[in-house]
Write a structure and sequence with these properties.
single chain, alpha/beta, 10 strands, two-stranded antiparallel ribbon, TIM Barrel, 10 helices, eight-stranded parallel beta barrel, globular, 289 residues
């Protein structure tokens, strides 16, 4: 079973439980990682999605409508749209709202898990279990990663370290994460943000290749100047080697999600997001031809 199939099954189960008002039980700990199982039913093994941080100025209902307008069925949900502090009943209502729209919650984040404290870490895993997401995208520290790994095993919820570029004191680039998690559970991996990675001065495609099986998520964006965070632009209008990135993901048989994280035009992001998806879909169509 691929990660995509596993996510769909979990989403359907979660939505059904939410509709019935039933609480959520954790999935069995110690299960094999779903991320690297092979596919043979298509040339492009990964799926495009949206990081709902892109829609941070909008409430959940508005964000869902905008995701539908993009013809996207998978999101990495940000707490703006499923708040941590919501009651279990309110979270269940949110799950139902996404489910009715035909949108799968494939991960959640980014989540700043920066305290080396059980109660702090457990709150995020309880949240993920309540929402029914199989993976947390996280901004941790090297010090608390062993503690986070223990919760990964307990809850059978994966984590992906999101790098944030030169300003990040903990994980500026993917290699910084790899050094810390190299011997950890296979459900502990990386969310490579291609824009932040480029700003560290490394080759993005090489960084993706180096991540190998530890690559659990990708955040896509584009930059006109690969060293300037303020030069973000519509995907396809900058210097990001999008086609080379996609080819590397295909070569790796990466079966996760490439989520557009569109951080500009916060008050009116939809036009630029539509153009970004048009470009990415065009690249993929050319590769699959």
């Amino acid at each position: 079973m691929s990660f995509r199939d596993l996510t769909r099954r979990r989403f359907v189960k979660t939505a059904a439980l939410a509709s019935a008002g039933v609480g959520f039980a954790p999935y069995a700990a110690g299960a094999a990682s779903p991320f690297r199982e092979k596919r043979s039913d298509g040339h492009i093994p990964f799926t495009l999605g949206v990081a709902t941080y892109s829609l941070r100025r909008f409430d959940r209902t508005e964000a869902i409508s905008m995701v539908q307008a993009l013809h996207v069925e998978h999101v990495s949900v940000k707490s703006f749209h499923m708040p941590y502090e919501d009651s279990p009943e309110d979270l269940a209502s949110g799950v139902r709202e996404f489910a009715r729209a035909g949108i799968e919650l494939v991960s959640g984040g980014n989540n700043t898990i920066d305290k080396d404290d059980d109660d702090h870490v457990r709150m995020f895993f309880e949240y993920a279990r309540a929402v029914g997401i199989p993976m947390l995208v996280i901004a941790p520290t090297a010090k608390n990663m062993p503690r986070i790994e223990r919760f990964v095993k307990e809850y059978d919820i994966s984590v992906a370290i999101h790098n944030h570029g030169p300003e990040d004191p903990h994980f500026p680039g993917p290699r910084d994460g790899l050094e810390v998690i190299r011997d950890m559970d296979p459900r502990v991996g990386l969310c490579i943000d291609v824009g932040h990675t480029a700003r560290t001065g490394v080759d993005v495609v090489e960084s993706i290749a180096e991540a190998g099986d530890r690559l659990l998520d990708v955040h896509m964006k584009d930059l006109r100047d690969m060293s300037d965070r303020d030069s973000q632009c519509i995907v396809g209008e900058g210097a990001m080697p999008v086609a080379d990135i996609f080819r590397q993901l295909v070569e790796m048989n990466y079966q996760g999600y490439v989520n557009l994280e569109y951080e500009i035009d916060a008050r009116d992001p939809l036009p630029g997001m539509k153009q970004s998806f048009a470009y990415m879909r065009g690249v993929l169509a050319g590769m699959a031809a």
